[in-house]
Design brief:
Layout (H helix, E strand, L loop, with lengths): L1 H17 L8 E4 L3 E4 L14 E5 L5 E4 L13 E3 L20 E3 L5 E9 L2 E6 L2 E5 L9 E8 L3 E8 L10 E3 L2 E4 L5 E5 L10 E10 L6 E2 L5 E2 L14 E4 L20 E3 L1 H4 L4 H4 L10 E3 L6 E10 L2 E4 L3 E2 L15 E2 L4 E4 L6 E3 L3 E4 L4 E4 L4 E3 L3 E4 L1
Parallel strand pairs: 6-10, 22-25, 23-26, 24-27, 25-28, 26-29, 27-30
Antiparallel strand pairs: 1-18, 2-3, 3-4, 5-10, 7-10, 7-14, 8-9, 8-11, 11-21, 12-13, 15-18, 15-21, 16-17, 19-20
Length: 383
C-alpha cells in the first residue's frame, strides 16, 4: 500500500508539471516554501502573522517569500493611522504634520508631503533613496505620511507586497477558506499634485497561486498576464508560483521603466478598503486611484514607478489654480524657481486663465503653444 501511494504521487507530479507547458522567462516553484522567520512583525496582537521563508525553483534558484524587504533595518514611515501604535486621527485635519521629519534628497528643491495606503506592505524610494517602509507588514491595515525635499524632475519607486500566510502559494485563511487568494492595492497622493494613476509603470515579480502554468503569458508590452488564470484555484498547497529577478537599480532615476506596462487602476470597492486607515482620509487622496499590476489577486510582488517632470503643463480649460487642468494635477508653485518651466497648452477652443499671481524667477521659463489662448486677469511677474 505504501509503495502504491508513493508511486501515485510521483506519477501525478510528473504529469501535472509537464502537461502544462510554461514558456515564459520566470522561474517556476511548486508547493509550500520553508519558513525562515516565524513572524516579521509581532508588535500587534490582532495582526496576521507575517512569516518569511524561502523556496527553490526548478532551475535551482532560491527565492525569498513573499519578497526580500528592508523591514528590519529601514526607517519606518510616520503613521497617518495605526491602531497598533494608537495613532487614530478621525480625519486629515487632526493630523499634525509638524511631527513628520523631512527626508532631504536634494538640498535645493521642494518639500513634498505624501499620503500613502498599501495592502499590505510597501517601501518608498525617491531617486533611489529609501525614504521609509510601511511599519506594518501585513495587518491590521494602516496608512502613512511621508515628507521629503527634492528637486524636479524626480523619480518615485515603490515596492508593493501582498503578504501571504501559506508561504509559496500566495494564499491566506479567509473565513474558513485556508487557501484564499487575497488581493493587493496601493494609493498615494503627493502635495505637488502627483497621484497614483495609469501614468505610473507597474511590473509583477511574483505570481501565485497558479494552477495551470500555461495561463501565465508574457505579452509584447511586457505584461506578465494571468488574465485566463483562475483566481480561486483548487491546487491549495500544491499550486505553482512564478518568480522574476529584480534589477538592483530599479529604484534609481536612470532605470528604464518604459519597458514596463502601465499601472492598472482599481476602485476602492474592488480593493475592499472599508477601514479607518483609508476611510478617515479620503480627501488625502481625492484625485488618486488605487493601482497595481494587471492582476490584483494573483500578482503578489509588484514594483511601481513614476517620474515627476520638471515642466508643469496646463492641458485643461479654465482657471490656473484648478489642479485638474494640469498634468498630474500638478499646479506650479507661485514662485517658479530656476530650472523649472511652465507649458501652456489648453484643450482645443479652450483657454488658460491666470486668475492668481505667478512669478517666474530668472532661469525659469513659461511658454504658450501656438494658436493657444492664455488670459491674464491676474498677475504674471517675470523676473
Amino acid at each position: 500500500m505504501i509503495k502504491q501511494t508513493f508511486f501515485f504521487i510521483l506519477s501525478f507530479t510528473f504529469y501535472h508539471s509537464f502537461s502544462q507547458p510554461y514558456t515564459g522567462s520566470g522561474s517556476v516553484t511548486q508547493g509550500l516554501g520553508i519558513k525562515t522567520i516565524t513572524n516579521l512583525y509581532s508588535a500587534c496582537s490582532n495582526g496576521r502573522v507575517s512569516a518569511v521563508g524561502t523556496i527553490t525553483s526548478t532551475d535551482g534558484k532560491v527565492w525569498t517569500l513573499p519578497a526580500e524587504t528592508n523591514f528590519l533595518n529601514a526607517p519606518k514611515l510616520p503613521d497617518l493611522y495605526n491602531e497598533c501604535t494608537g495613532v487614530k486621527p478621525i480625519n486629515l485635519a487632526a493630523v499634525n504634520l509638524n511631527n513628520v521629519p523631512i527626508k532631504v534628497i536634494d538640498n535645493v528643491g521642494d518639500t513634498i508631503t505624501a499620503y500613502l495606503f498599501g495592502d499590505n506592505y510597501f517601501e518608498l524610494y525617491i531617486n533611489g533613496v529609501l525614504v521609509g517602509v510601511d511599519p506594518i507588514t501585513y495587518t491590521p491595515f494602516n496608512s502613512c505620511v511621508a515628507r521629503f525635499k527634492v528637486a524636479r524632475p524626480y523619480t518615485i519607486a515603490v515596492k508593493l507586497v501582498d503578504w501571504e500566510e501559506n508561504m509559496g502559494v500566495g494564499t491566506e485563511n479567509n473565513n474558513g477558506n485556508l487557501y484564499h487568494a487575497g488581493d493587493g492595492g496601493f494609493i498615494a497622493q503627493f502635495s505637488d499634485g502627483t497621484v497614483t494613476d495609469t501614468t505610473w509603470r507597474a511590473q509583477t515579480f511574483y505570481i501565485s497561486p497558479i494552477e495551470n502554468l500555461s495561463s501565465v503569458i508574457e505579452l509584447p508590452d511586457s505584461t506578465r498576464s494571468t488574465s485566463s488564470a483562475s483566481t480561486s484555484p483548487s491546487c491549495n498547497g500544491n499550486c505553482y508560483g512564478i518568480h522574476y529577478p529584480i534589477s538592483t537599480n530599479w529604484t534609481t532615476q536612470s532605470f528604464n521603466d518604459s519597458i514596463w506596462p502601465k499601472a492598472t487602476t482599481y476602485t476602492a470597492a474592488t480593493v475592499g478598503v472599508n477601514f479607518p486607515a483609508y476611510m478617515n482620509f479620503t480627501n488625502a487622496w481625492s484625485n488618486a486611484k488605487f493601482i497595481w499590476s494587471s492582476n490584483l489577486i494573483l500578482d503578489n510582488v509588484v514594483l511601481v514607478r513614476k517620474t515627476v517632470p520638471a515642466t508643469y503643463t496646463f492641458t485643461g480649460n479654465g482657471n490656473w489654480d484648478v489642479p485638474s487642468n494640469w498634468v498630474n494635477y500638478s499646479v506650479p508653485p507661485s514662485i517658479l524657481p530656476a530650472g523649472k518651466s511652465i507649458s501652456i497648452n489648453p484643450v482645443k477652443n479652450g483657454s488658460c486663465i491666470l486668475n492668481t499671481t505667478q512669478q517666474i524667477n530668472p532661469g525659469a521659463t513659461i511658454s504658450v503653444s501656438a494658436d493657444k489662448t492664455f488670459l491674464i486677469p491676474g498677475n504674471l511677474i517675470i523676473q
